[in-house]
Amino acid sequence: MIGPDRMGIIMREDANAARRQFLAWLAATPLAAGALQAMAQTPSTVITSAEQALNVFELEAVARQTIPPSHWGYLTGGVQDDRSLVTNRTAYDRWGLRPRRLVDVSKVDTSVKLFGETWSSPIALSPVSSQRAFHADGERASALAAGKRNALQILSTLTTVPVEDVIKAHGHPVWQQLYTTNIPRLGEQVVARAEAAGASAIVFTIDLLGGGQRRETQAIFARTDSRTCATCHTPRAGYDFSRKRMFDGLDMTGAVSPNSNTLTWDYVSRLRDLVKTRLLVKGVMTPEDATLAIKRGVDGIIVSNHGGRAEDSLVGTLDVLPEIAQAVKGRVPILIDGGIRRGSDAFKALALGASMVCIGRPYCWGLGAFGEDGVTAALRLLDEELIATMRQCGVTSIKAIKKDRLTKLA
Fold it and tell me: 187, 215, 273, 344: which could form a disulfide with 180 (CB 3.0–4.6 Å)?
């Protein structure tokens, strides 16, 4: 028999081996690696302009070189052994496509209408915090790219560019994501400011309310960063809000943190009473929570595990999408994020019940690599791949994408 001490050593060795394997993967080639993606990671073939990118992985290769190590660790890692980050991606590999032939696909319409707004594509920008950590223009560059392509942008509460400037750059209303903080009135002041600026929806993120798990990959990369953090960050008790523009002018004295672990579904009802525009909850991973959210009056649901950064559940967002869609029964729109790297991934999510899909890391790779041009490239590449997939599957509109165009592989 193996004693408990020895078993603990074996488990730690297994965890360390898994982490080494993940870091080796980061250093070499994306998880869905093929020969083309492997070549994209070879230094001799790293692209020099956004227009040269053949896929989002080529943008990733450049971003890894241009984004500082600690910021790269923040962007690229998940929690603990990063296994949920990986399962978000592999969930898409469990579904194949069912091509249909001899259909007139000369005209393909990718537009989506949601809450009275029409977007040119079902691919939207997820809220990602602190984008000036990846490029000096930050969220403004993302907004310029999204606006020119008429793509939906969801702005993080922890943005480094204020919502007013983002909406101006985008040219259309954006959605404002909400972290309540552990002093909810601060979050409610953020809601009021976003609505006053013209944000057309508030997206309450619920997947970190119970407390996030340790982000070990981020910490490991930070150890290799020789820069002085105090150059940009202001040391203080609690979370550093000094560069988070949505909290400018608010009383941030005391140990303020982005989230509260005391909130319950009653707070969704409180938000429903406060929010004048559309209200969505982001971070739903079960049909039970989707049902509770609808009972509390939300206008939409985003299936998300924070890009594998909320919990180490080993469950991908696409894995739970079908049962959530079945529970929702079309009563509210469903969006999804996590693991989308190809237009064919977007197609699969739409076929399994999503109204729109959201990307995070891919457009931030573009941002870190080439600024606005890189974000534009990420959106363009995914749109092109989505259109190609639609044509191969014989569908010419987003509404026509159904589960009968998929085959379950495992």
Answer: 187
